[in-house]
Amino acid sequence: MFEQLGLIGCGLMGGSFALAMKKAGLVKRVVGYSKSPSTTDRARQLGVIDIEAPSALLAAAGADIVLLAVPVSATEATLKAIKHLVTPQMLIMDVGSTKADVAQAARRALRDQVGSFVPAHPITGREVAGVEHAEAELYLGRQVIITPTERTISAHLHKAEELWTALGCRVTQMSPESHDAAFAAVSHLPHLLAFALINAITGQAEGDEYLALAGPGFRDFTRIAASDPKVWRDILLANREEVLAQSQRFQQALQTLEKAMQEGNAQSLEDMLTLASETRAHWRMGAQRGTKIR
Amino acid sequence: MFEQLGLIGCGLMGGSFALAMKKAGLVKRVVGYSKSPSTTDRARQLGVIDIEAPSALLAAAGADIVLLAVPVSATEATLKAIKHLVTPQMLIMDVGSTKADVAQAARRALRDQVGSFVPAHPITGREVAGVEHAEAELYLGRQVIITPTERTISAHLHKAEELWTALGCRVTQMSPESHDAAFAAVSHLPHLLAFALINAITGQAEGDEYLALAGPGFRDFTRIAASDPKVWRDILLANREEVLAQSQRFQQALQTLEKAMQEGNAQSLEDMLTLASETRAHWRMGAQRGTKIR
């Protein structure tokens, strides 16, 4: 399907994309660039990329598909760096967790060429970073949210949908703003809460003792607190308004539960816990498939 | 090691204990009782118990070991129900997630016989309830916290330690109060937060839409929100002071993160996320083994 993938950012997300594309036979060559030369080198040694590029521009040169897999705050600078080589035939995508800021960055950086850019967010990840953890199956069975801009060329949009579908993903389209509102609630806020819980515990004199006693519930609840701090710094800042609004709603829900505890209102507490428990017990990951939301 | 286990409460925790005891060859017979006759019946059909008892008292009759696996608020009434048949030779344990209230309930219910009671909390569980999900391996490799009272007979204490060790657990001893303070932080609060997050999301008009988009991070973070509402109502009420105190610390940590977001203070935010991420990345479940705390 593609001759040459220009991969900018050879970490977990980018490296896994390259491996998945190769495994699916969707690309002939992968030219890769990472900010850290040792990462690019390691990516080649591991067979994640075929050729090392010394710059983002050279990674994009001659590519018919370019993937940006960098922290979202680096999107604009990266797109500016490759702008001179962007052609209308080139499909450019990212994999960032926020989309309104990425769409804005693309408009500013690419200007007339912004139609080549298809913002994408695959709903996957791991709590470990780095090309060493890249795996061809990271995207398999996951949802991918595509948030086209008003300028996105529809041929590129269809190509992007076909590509992700061929990688075993279910594609959903929505606006960047709807995306950011939804993921503030179900992804960005949970990360913020997990980070806050760890810091609240370690801020206590007995914190280490407490952590040594924690079991499987704690393990799963806090898994995402081990996520990459720079990636999450960017996400929490880029989508801060939606995240702060969701955090307010969360604190209200928490305080409603606390009130029932303080009052010893067992029935009210049980009712609220039952609502949460039943909702979560019936929830299935990715239950809604490939639909358009707004 | 034991002739007869009297199992009071044949759900996930009790049923799994019976299966583990049988598998390890530690008990000859299991006599079981559950409040719901259909549960007791099902437990016998599944081979979790050998004989159905029509009451807690009859489940305890003739047993040399009794396990209470009931919601913590039922501890006192259950111990009162079996008091007439409690002998100094009988080892009685529970598996409740709170310990100060359970120790108090045991003192009130058993009076002179309280020395037979060894309060225990195995750090395990699943988000599904019921004897159908009972499994012999639920306790394998887990920590068990034993919180003896001032009256606990030391022979029983040693027997309890040997038993849990034989089931593949690591035993830690501490006071009921230290236990409740620690588990408020690493278990009870995370459950409260997970319940609150689900209710905050479903309380929004777009809640169902948002939930349909959630991925693996959300799945793991909220797994414990599917826990049994009655069990958790009891735990949150029994340990409410410690949980509310931990919730205050948590909200302060959350608001410190929010402040950095509001101010756009990327460095401060990154520093706090790095602290949390490194702490969680280095954490290992049950790293502290079989030590005495206070």
Question: Can you give keywords for this protein?
Answer:
6-PGluconate_DH-like_C_sf (chains A, B); 294 residues; 6-stranded parallel β-sheet; 12 helices; alpha/beta; 4-stranded mixed β-sheet; Prephen_DH (chains A, B); Preph/Arog_dehydrog (chains A, B); 2 domains; 50% helix; homodimer; 6-phosphogluconate dehydrogenase C-terminal fold; Rossmann fold
Question: Any chance you could write out the topology, listing elements then pairs?
Answer:
The structure is a homodimer of 294-residue chains.
Chain A: E1 2-8, H1 12-23, E2 27-33, H2 37-45, E3 51-52, H3 56-60, E4 65-68, H4 75-82, E5 91-94, H5 100-110, E6 117-118, E7 120-122, E8 143-146, H6 154-166, E9 170-174, H7 176-202, H8 207-213, H9 216-221, H10 229-238, H11 240-262, H12 266-282, E10 292-293
Parallel strand pairs in A: 1-2, 1-4, 2-3, 4-5, 5-6, 8-9, 9-10
Antiparallel strand pairs in A: 7-8
